Amino acid sequence: MDQFFCLHLFLLFFNLFFFSSSSDPKSSFGKGGGHDSFILGNYGYSSSSSSSSSSSSSIKDEIIRVANAPENVKWLKRIRREIHEYPELGYEEFKTSALIRRELDQMGIGYRWPVAGTGVVATIGSGSPPFVALRADMDALPIQEMVEWEHKSKIDGKMHACGHDAHVTMLLGAAKLLQELSDTLQGTVVLIFQPAEELGSGALRMIEEGAIENVEAILGLHVVHRYGTGTVASRPGEFLAGCGSFKAEITGKGGHAALPQESIDPILAASASVVSLQHIVSRETDPLQSQVVSVSTFQAGKAFNVIPDSAVIGGTFRAFSKQNLDSLKQRIQQVITGQATVHRCSAKVEFSEEDHPLIPPTVNNERVYSIMHHISTEIVGDNNTHTAPCIMGSEDLAFYLDKIPGSFLLIGTRNERLGSVYPPHSPYFTIDEDALPIGAAIHAAFAHRYLISSSQWQQI
Ligand SMILES: [Zn+2]
Ligand SMILES: [Zn+2]
Q1: Any signal peptide, and if so, which residues (predicted)?
Q2: Over the range 262-282, which residues count as b (16 or more CB within 10 Å of their CB) and which as e?
Q3: From ligand 2's centre to the CA of 448, what distance in Å?
Q4: Which of 43, 110, 174, 298 is in Cβ range 3.0-4.6 Å of 60 for a Cys bridge?
């Protein structure tokens, strides 16, 4: 599995740049005594005077009320814990998919399945345009859980260490809220439960199999340990980097290490390539346009007295525009083959796009972002809706955003008291489940509001 495709490995670096409130964010939007009495706050549309807005306001109040209802919070936790106990890797999410269908059946929500192997695409509302999509990823990681708790992973060597169990739960929570309000939806909400985000290809396959056909806009959420529970973060425009990987085999001629004149040394050619690759970003790119080229693997030789026939290097490259990604890809190819030639070797450079497709940058559409931002401020409050910095990590939600307008939102789950402080992909990763109703409410309120906004916009 290729963890580097996932957003969260990079949140370690992200830590350096984050700013988060030092006060307890939960207290700022109200909280009862127990875990089950979390109160989402401040939802309303007082800034608008239109009649649709006032009915929208009461509907949003209803979303908050239902999301916060103790029995709903209990149900959300039960769902998340059930998924957490049986983590499944990319394209193997059979139990998770069955659980999703079980819950959708109980809610009376129709769906299409299988999509991309284990994926599920459900719809709620009129069945007519406009269509707006909400997306959750289902896959876990090949990690042995080290958190000792009642609902620890029951599968050795597999763990929901990136919070995708929470994402599925939040989307099911939204499904429940939206189904109760389905008569008021001014269009159709498409719920996308996708496989294999960690492999970087799940979203692509869902798109190929028609998951966003006729869909106007999409929203994706991800839990994040750097922001406290009760807070959210995002930014308009460029948000997460696009990401690609490369592997190069440099071939020379092996021989005795004491007689280098009789060999053609691929290690020297590979070493020169590694050094020259560093010049692409440092000397050729605008310092104000963040890019990365990292060589992270180097394999060559087996004996101290033998020059090997070949050396293999590999790594990752990242940028915030497709143009810069393409240009990095082209220069990586040129630099490695050029350095190989200088050192009398040959080189074969691969960008392994079949196994690991080039992930586009995650760019939040301004209009969708503004609706999402407004909804967030209404759900968790202005002070708890942060502007996040750009992140060098990648997310396969970007494949959808490459096709249709959309937005990506980080949902805070940090809570020292519960040990929800570890980065994703850590065997100690855990989340504060109080974030579950917040994610469900934001999903549902966004979809509801987007459809109103789209209908009004189309009438103009
Ligand atoms: Zn991950
Ligand atoms: Zn993730």
Answers
A1: 1-23
A2: ebbbbbbbbbbbbebbeebbe
A3: 25
A4: 43
Percent of the chain whose predicted confidence (pLDDT) is above 70: 86
Q: Please tell me the total number of residues recorded for the chain in this structure.
A: 460
Other Cβ atoms within 10 Å of 238 Cβ, number: 18
> 337: CA distance to ligand 2 center in Å?
35
Residue 224 · residue 17 · CB < 8 Å: no
Closest ligand by atom to 165 CA? 2
Cα 122 to Cα 215: distance, rounded to the nearest angstrom? 13
123-150 tens-digit pLDDT: 999 999 999 999 999 999 999 999 999 9
Residue 41 has pLDDT above 90, yes or no: no
The pLDDT value recorded for residue 29 is: 33
Task: Please write the tens of the pLDDT for every residue from 437-447.
Answer: 999 999 999 99
CA 5 to ligand 1 centroid distance, Å:
8
- Dist. CA 118–CA 139, nearest whole Å: 10
Residue type, 225: H
Residues having C-beta closer than 5 Å to ion ligand 1? 6, 8, 162
Q: Hey, what are 127's tokens?
A: 């069945």
pTM of the entire predicted model? 0.85
List the alpha helices (DSSP H) in 181-321: 202-208, 266-279
pLDDT of residue 37: 33
